[in-house]
Amino acid sequence: MEALVRWQHPVRGLMSPEEFIPLIEQSYLMRELTAQVIHMALGQAALWWEAGMTVQVSLNVAARDVLDNGLADLIGRGLRQHGLPPESLLLEIDERVLTSEPAHAVVTAEVLAALGVSLSLDDFGTGYSSLVRLKRLPVSEVKIDSSFVGRLLHSADDQVIVKSIVDLVSALGIRSVAEGVESAEVAAELVRMGCVAAQGWHFSRPLNPASATAWLAERSERAGLAERAGLAERPGLAERPGLAELAERAERAGRPAPAREQAAGPV
User: Fold this and answer.
1) CA dihedral 183, 187, 192, 195 (to 10 degrees)
2) Alpha carbons within 13 A on the beta-carbon side of 157
3) Rounded CA separation 194/108 (Å)
4) Which of 96, 151, 83, 95 is nearest to 120 (CA)?
5) For residues 148-177, b (16+ Cβ closer than 10 Å) or e, as one string?
6) What is the pLDDT of residues 33-91, one digit of tens each?
7) Model pTM?
8) N or C: which terminal CB in the chain sees fewer CB atoms within 10 Å?
């Protein structure tokens, strides 16, 4: 599940990140926004983990965040405050940061990995990063940019690119995730190529916290997860809030939707 940032502007209505994040990145507000998003996303994750849904929440890290020496401390404090283990969080770093600030990006990635936080290389294929850098980065997954995935069924070149990325990262022991999957046909082709996971509107539109909780519960039940089957036997479960209560609490809190912009799921 990926935490999303939207701005409900009093005049312009709901604004996407592309409309305001570039401006914020040029100001002193970036650190404050990052801290707020981390706090709210981890707060929602804590509700899910409290209910037995051990969902990993991912956050996009801006270029300025990667260059901030205090990012690791901020993440560590947030995890401790909400009582979450490091594996509950995945941070997405744009591949283009590697080409502009490779030294700082590698240092930040190594510090975060030392905390136990998973790292993802976002928009892979757009930043021209070298294989040497990819090999040295402590990333657990690579996200294939939607510009390649969207043309997968209509461009032989993009098919070759996607298949090559999937094979490459698999050989390095890294998980492949396709971005921007909008049809069952594209999902099926990715399965054929060996892609491990995907995200896109084919799986779900962006969701608010209450809807995301229901979405998770439905799919957990549908999958017949062993964990959910044995929840009733776990000590202390009676004290845990139910899913309906969690959805109501999330809705009252008004947290931003931690569902993936294109909600993620295995393909």
Assistant:
1) 150
2) 2
3) 30
4) 95
5) bbbbbeeeeebbebbbebbeebeeeebbbb
6) 999 999 999 999 999 999 888 999 999 888 788 878 889 999 999 999 999 999 999 99
7) 0.78
8) C
